[in-house]
Amino acid sequence: MEPIAHVSIHGGHSRQFCFHARDRLEEIINRYMELGFAWVGITEHLPAHKETLRYPDEVKENLDCGDMLAIFEAYIQECNRLKEKYKKEIRIFTAFETETYSGYDTIVPGMIAKHKPDYIVGSLHHVDDLGFDFSRKQYIETALRLGGIDALYERYFDQQYEMIQAIDPAVVGHFDLVRIFDHDYETRIKKPSIWQKIVRNLELIKERKTVMDYNLRALAKGAREPYITAPILELAQKMGITVIPGDDSHGVSDIGKNMDRAVETLHKLGFDTNWSLPRLYQWKEENP
Residue 142 is part of which domain span? Predict the structure, then answer.
């Protein structure tokens, strides 16, 4: 077996621009280079547009939406600077990770037009404007407000489907993040009311030629497997969907961690490990 290049389609969160991450962005990019990554997509979070949608760490730092917008704009500028600085050593994509909450269907296209990313990762960290992935306490509170964990899953996959239709991201981030604090997820995803929504979403992903992020963040937090869980991953392979590793790094120490394991899993399942690039925006002024 020929060596398989390491890439990350979803990574590069840094303490410089994300308050639940660590280290500076340039340190993170240097680590990708040290480890010989062929390319990496830096995918910082889109800032909240309402105070109630801020992450708990942003609230703790007393940062309002205006502050977060300024930080995000600084991220775009710095990522583009590093992309140019290190272009002979590594291919860097300036991207961002969307949120899915009220108004995203107009906010995200506006941010794309303004900041001209190479691509976007479509993610959900909220369901019905309620955060669910920051802590187990938050997860349970949101599930109870929605009518239980099954209801949380169903709303999550419905809103993911709507998000893919609305903003057509090049990448779907951590497809099944909704299972983050659910110890019974292996049984729950097989429930017909949930599984049929998963299949529906995969069919849309295949139709749109969207890439799925094989997200290693779960392993860094002690989970048994990455997002995407095995039954969904196996179905994606049978459907011919492209899946590419994303370390979802939140600091230098995350980079490269569990990547060999992820690559081996994808290779054994029959995914193409000659990693294709995600669908890139073509900005004439940046890519003549």
Answer: 7-269
- The answer to whether the beta carbons of residues 279 and 119 sit under 8 Å apart is yes
Structure tokens given for 114: 């303004």
Read off the pLDDT of residues 195-247 as tens digits, 9 standing for 90 and up: 999 999 999 999 999 999 999 999 988 899 999 999 999 999 999 999 999 99
For the whole model, what pTM was predicted?
Answer: 0.94
Closest-CA residue to 92 (of 11, 157, 167, 171) = 11
- Give, as one character, the DSSP assignment of residue 249: -
Q: For residues 228 and 213, what is the distance between their CA atoms, to the nearest angstrom?
A: 8
Q: Does residue 140 belong to any structural domain of this protein?
A: yes
Q: Count Cβ atoms within 10 A of the Cβ of residue 225 and give its class: 0-12 exposed, 13-18 middle, 19 or more buried.
A: middle
One-letter amino acid of 33: M
Going from the C-alpha of 16 to that of each of 56, 119, 250, the distances in angstroms are 17, 21, 11
CB hemisphere CA count around 122 (13 angstroms)? 28
What is the CATH classification number for the domain harbouring 227?
3.20.20.140
User: If you search the block for the tokens 């980079």, which residue do you land on?
Assistant: 255
CB atoms within 10 A of CB 287: 10
Question: How many domains does one find in the chain?
Answer: 1
